[in-house]
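Example S7 (structure tokens).
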């Protein structure tokens, strides 16, 4: 039987991968630093701190997984981009991969980021676009990719690197662009945004999870963009939400300044995703926004501290257009 260990099982992406792994007949083992909070039958939960090498080794020695999906990486909005913790995450991730290999692991997928690319090129291709990260986060991710690639080749691991672009959906951190606009309009408050002309590549988190699980089941190795391939402006996203909630009047474009180095265009070339992996999105923007609004209707009035803890635990959320004050709108 295929036996998978997934890190960040309670995070934004990880929690959406778990039911898909169960559906594909994996024996699923999920790793988290706290109690799960994710209800799913036939899932074995393991509580461990990835920064504690001994705890990680003990879990892997007990489970002996054949497959690994590593989504864990702490990315609190406004602070993660240049946090020294990124260096610690590289170390912890390398320890995890080495322990996985030593216990007989065969196939792994690690979540990278579009932040690895040189955003001045706008249209990002795995084989053509230069790798010039803008910050420590992107640098750490790319450094890890290089080391994992070289190590995997030496020990005979099959390793894929998923460069995820912009994503949204249930359980996202409330300060990010989609939930912040949704929450503002649901509460009848102004949604203060930048001019919103930035073009990005957004993909619903359920599709991101499906692409990761499909990638795990494949033989593809090396970097692979995970995105929609469809450009959309921040303005269009905001007004899509406004139209659905009938509160477009509350959207205030230009209320927040835009950083002068914020790129006008960041979109994924998804040719390899479609042709080599044979994968395409299931959720369009309209359906994805509907599901996101529905989730926030049910959850935004819970304790704000509970929602933030739930949505930041070892997530793998990617960068968005930011104002010069670090607010993501």
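Recovered sequence:
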């Amino acid at each position: 039987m295929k036996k998978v260990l997934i890190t960040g099982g309670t995070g934004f992406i990880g929690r959406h991968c778990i039911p898909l792994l169960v559906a594909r007949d994996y024996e699923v083992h999920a790793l988290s630093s706290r109690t799960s909070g994710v209800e799913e039958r036939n899932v074995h939960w393991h509580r461990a701190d990835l920064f504690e090498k001994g705890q990680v080794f003990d879990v892997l020695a007990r489970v002996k997984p054949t497959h690994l999906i590593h989504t864990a990486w702490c990315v609190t909005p406004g602070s993660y981009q240049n946090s020294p913790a990124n260096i610690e995450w590289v170390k912890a991730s390398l320890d995890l991969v080495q322990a996985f290999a030593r216990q007989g692991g065969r196939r792994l997928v690690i979540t990278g980021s579009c932040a690895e690319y040189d955003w001045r090129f706008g249209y990002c291709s795995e084989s053509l676009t230069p790798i010039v990260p803008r910050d420590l986060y992107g640098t750490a991710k790319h450094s890890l990719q290089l080391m994992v690639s070289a190590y995997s080749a030496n020990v005979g691991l099959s390793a894929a690197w998923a460069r995820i672009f912009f994503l949204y959906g249930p359980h996202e951190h409330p300060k990010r662009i989609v939930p912040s606009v949704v929450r503002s309009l649901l509460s009848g408050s102004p949604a203060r945004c930048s001019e919103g002309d930035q073009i990005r590549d957004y993909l619903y988190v359920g599709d991101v999870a499906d692409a990761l699980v499909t990638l795990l089941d494949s033989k593809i190795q090396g970097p692979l963009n995970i995105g929609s391939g469809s450009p959309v402006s921040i303005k269009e996203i905001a007004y899509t939400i406004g139209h659905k909630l009938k509160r477009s009047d509350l959207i205030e474009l230009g209320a927040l300044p835009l950083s002068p180095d914020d790129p006008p265009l960041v979109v994924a070339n998804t040719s390899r995703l479609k042709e080599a992996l044979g994968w395409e999105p299931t959720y369009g923007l309209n359906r994805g926004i509907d599901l996101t609004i529905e989730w926030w209707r049910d959850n935004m009035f819970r304790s704000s501290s509970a929602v933030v803890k739930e949505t930041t635990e070892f997530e793998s959320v990617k960068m968005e257009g930011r104002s010069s004050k670090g607010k993501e709108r």
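Notes on this example. The longest strand covers residues 107-113.
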